Fold this sequence. Notes:
By secondary structure, the chain is α+β, with helices and mostly antiparallel strands.
Amino acid sequence: MEENLTKTCLHDRHVALGALMSPFGGFDMPIQYKGITEEHNAVRHEVGVFDVSHMGEVRVKGPDAYKFVSHIFVNDVTGAPDGQIFYGMMCYENGGTVDDLLVYKVNDEEYFLVINASNIAKDVEWIRKNAEGFNVEITDQSPYYGEVAVQGPKAEETMENVLGIPVKDIAFYNFKTFPIDGEEVIVSRTGYTGEDGFEVYGSHAFTQKVWDKLMDAGVQPCGLGCRDTLRFEVGLPLYGDELSADITPIEASLSMFVKLDKPEFIGKEALALQKAEGVKRRIIGLELEGNAIPRHGYPVEVDGVQVGEITTGYRSISTGKSVAMAMVNKPFDKLGTKVEVRIRKKTFPATVVKKRFYDKSYKK
Length: 364
């Protein structure tokens, strides 16, 4: 194990369950328990639970909270009802991505931001730096919160029957706060698997209790291995692969989350220019012929010339196909375009397809 890795509040439980542990975003995280395929299928067909306590949480409070969140976030939170959640990005002036995140609207003067584990220190510093001149208080609550994600078609009944938390009335991309065991617990109908599911934020002690109840009830614990295969199949990006300081949301084919008709926000000018003029490259889906498995960094070629590279690739567990997301240059991004993926010394034919390889099953 690498030195200086942070352990989540559930670390001892993962080790006791025999999980394969590995560094991820500065944390020592479970990659798999029984195996990626079994855990993946549990989430697609029944229910599984993930330790996502490595995610970061930042609270923004104060009279200028709405104005400030609008200033740093590309999506538009204007007029949203309390309890609604938005997905989007924070961008640099040049349009590159600081991070992708969820913004929970508590009320006009309070927002709860959920950021990626590997970016916590960088994000918090960037948020604080840009808060100058706004009447807001920024609190990094990452050390306080533990978080579990209960995901799959049976997530709702598991939340209700095993944890006794009434979630039926929580709509997709909404949250509620529950007073449980003398603390305020946040429960949202969100996840990163393409299935119905919930994310539960509470103290470390509360998170341990929730995990133990789920384990006692026989819910399948799931590692980051299948979290990646699940998010990938439904076309969801991972920061560091499909988004980065060098990849804008427009290049990542996520322009639907960039609301250019709202007032000024950091990166707006650069992103508006990209939208108007078009980008020179973008993230697309690829389907390979045969069984070869494309991996991150493998070159995408046309007539022996590199035109892009794989950002994420797998033999899709749900579809049985060899598929990938890739950053490719225009004009090779059009659906149906024939390209080749170089895997060591050989190339394999591939076709540009939609980057959602499997249909999402969210609760309507």
